[in-house]
Amino acid sequence: MSETRAGKTITVIEGDDAAPEVVQPTVELIDRMNLPITWEYPLVGEAAKAETGKAFPDASRTMIDEADTTLFGSSSGSSGTALFYLRWGKKTFANVRPCLHFPGCSSPLVNPDGINFVIVRENLEDLYVGVEGQLADLAPLNLVGRTIRKPVHELGEGRFAIKAITREGSERVIRFAFELARTRGGRKLVTSTQKHNMLRGTDGYFLEIAREIATEYPDIDFETFIVDDFACRMIIQPQHFDVIVMPNLYGDILSDSAAGLVGSLGLAASGCYGEDYAYFEPAHGTAPDIAGKGIINPTATLMSARMMLEYLDFGEAAERLQEAVAKVYADGKYLTPDQGGRASTREFCTAVSACLGI
Question: What angle do CA 308, 286, 38 make, to 5 degrees?
Fold first, then answer.
């Protein structure tokens, strides 16, 4: 059965190393779901360099701009220029990382049943503004450290990085998290985590803004933990959480850590959302050590595609895809080696297709 929706255009960037081995069968599978989708393939990376002299030519940028969304395979090379544009150029400020346990997954936890939370990571600022330098360059500012009680440049030879937390950036990602909590069927709980006890001016500011916004959502419960306390709680009682929002660096680290709770990064889907654009990519990297072997786990890409379908208003298809992936794990016959099975990437995808009846 196909959904009646306006046609959508998706640009596909297959990525590097083993990434195309999961992107290609995912696109093929969704194509067989009989949705009104047009796929386009902008030229990026080494192929683009060879043909145009640029890793990310203007025509490819225009193709992305005119599409409804982008499915991006992991990058380890020059195709990363396109990823930089998708993130900072398109201002996709909220990195959404679901942590969902499928019964049948090989989790290191004794009881992973019921894990179903989402980390919402601020995606554009914090330490990732990329401003670093020599400590000696700070001498004209004579910045005195609150803990060391002397000018920072007098610590000795070394480097610094700027951590930037803005009201605009914090408000939009925290509000995004509360709106997301409203759409989920879970506890209707938003958890804010940051290192506000030590970084009072920056992380403390993030928490201050979170508390302000929480008052606008009386239907959503709100709680907060210092980030190291949260990391422990995430391992001990992951079923407690629903939607968790945090600054960029913590989100980068803890979202990968969360994937370990349910099995591996091979299950880690990701979507990056802005005001008027979003793109979707698996979070597992390019897996160069298994490139060409056809055994990379496609779950992260399939579940990223599931997020993409939901974003494009193909909600029924998104749910069907997730249910099919869940059935493959519950059955256990076609799992990839990282999950203790012997199936190839394409055999896993074929099993998902069979569950979908396509």
Answer: 35
The single residue listed with the structure tokens 């450290």 is 145
In a domain, 69, yes or no: yes
For the chain, percent of residues with pLDDT exceeding 90: 90
Assess whether 246 and 303 both reside in one domain.
Answer: no
User: Any idea what the Cα angle at residue 190 is, between residues 187 and 196, rounded to 5°?
Assistant: 145
132 burial (CB, 10 Å; 0-12 / 13-18 / 19+) is: exposed
Residue 120: which domain range?
Answer: 107-126+163-262
Q: How far is CA 76 from CA 17, 80, 215, 241, in A?
A: 8, 7, 42, 32
- CATH number assigned to the domain comprising residue 118: 3.40.50
- Can you say how many angstroms the Cα of residue 10 is from the centroid of all Cα atoms in its chain? 18
The burial of 250, by beta-carbon neighbours within 10 Å (0-12 exposed, 13-18 middle, 19 or more buried), is given as buried
Specify whether 194 is located in the same domain as 275: no
152 falls within a domain: no
Question: Minimal CA–CA distance to 3: which of 355, 271, 319?
Answer: 319
Tens of pLDDT along 246-273? 999 999 999 999 999 998 888 999 999 9
Question: Is residue 158 included in any domain, yes or no?
Answer: no
Distance CA 166, CA 109 (A): 37
Hunting for tokens 């913590």 — which residue is that?
250
Mean pLDDT (whole number) for 137-165 = 95
* Beta bridge pairs of residue 271: 96, 280
Using CA atoms, how far residue 209 sits from 56, 168, 201, 205, in Å, is 37, 10, 12, 6
Report the C-alpha gap between 156 and 137 in whole angstroms.
12
